[in-house]
Write a structure and sequence with these properties.
Helix content is about 30%, strand content about 30%. It is of the alpha+beta class. The chain has a single domain, classed as Gcn5-related N-acetyltransferase (GNAT) (Aminopeptidase), CATH 3.40.630. It has an 8-stranded mixed beta sheet, with helices on both faces. A hairpin with a 5-residue loop joins strand 4 and strand 5.
Length: about 190
């Protein structure tokens, strides 16, 4: 599926359009993005990207957004629904390296989690992050993700293998730590969701 509009303070997550395809291609070709293990698809022709976007729109267990700031595409986010009810996986949250350090990744992540917990009523979000992806780990730590597993020697780069962390973030942590970001009050205990 293609996502609707999710507003952050600095970034907006919106439905991808054909105008985003050259940006997606350039983003996936950027070696800084590829090094961090955040590649959604390999670089390709515009026609191939159009096919990929069409396939993403048909996918029932995934949602794709373009992340926009200042009227321009600055990244993408892809979420898949977990086979267990109430769970989802944040597969990709990629920001253009030219925009790193401006808070767009954190802002988009907060907006996404508001969508997960306040709109979709999810209970748990999971993510996999290479141990050397410092930017992603900082965002995950700010939000309140906790480690629940580790894949050893998963990625090979810079002449050595590196591990992957499996992290999770639950609705209780969201409610306790991010109440100022909520759009809706949580359901009281005992009330059917």
């Amino acid at each position: 599926m293609l996502g609707g509009i999710v507003l952050g303070n600095k970034a907006t997550l919106r439905t991808p359009t054909g105008d985003d395809l050259p940006f997606f291609n350039a983003l996936m070709a950027d070696m800084r993005v590829r090094r961090e293990g955040q590649v959604w698809h390999e670089p390709a022709t515009a026609a191939t990207w159009k096919e990929r976007l069409t396939e993403a729109a048909k996918e029932q267990n995934a949602v794709l957004w373009t992340i926009e700031a200042g009227g321009a595409a600055v990244g993408l986010a892809l979420v898949t629904w977990h086979s267990e009810p109430g769970h989802c996986d944040l597969r990709h949250l990629v920001i253009d390296p030219a925009r790193w350090g401006k808070g767009l990744g954190t802002d988009a992540a907060i907006a996404l989690h508001r969508y997960f917990f306040d709109y979709l009523d999810k209970r748990v979000v999971a993510v996999e992050i290479p141990v050397d992806d410092e930017r992603a780990l900082r965002i995950a730590a700010r939000l309140g993700y906790t480690e629940f597993g580790r894949g050893h020697e998963v990625y090979y780069r810079d002449g050595a293998y590196t591990d992957k962390l499996y992290l999770r973030f639950d609705r209780e942590t969201w409610n306790a730590s991010w109440s100022h970001e909520r759009e809706y009050d949580p359901f009281p205990d005992g009330v059917e969701r």
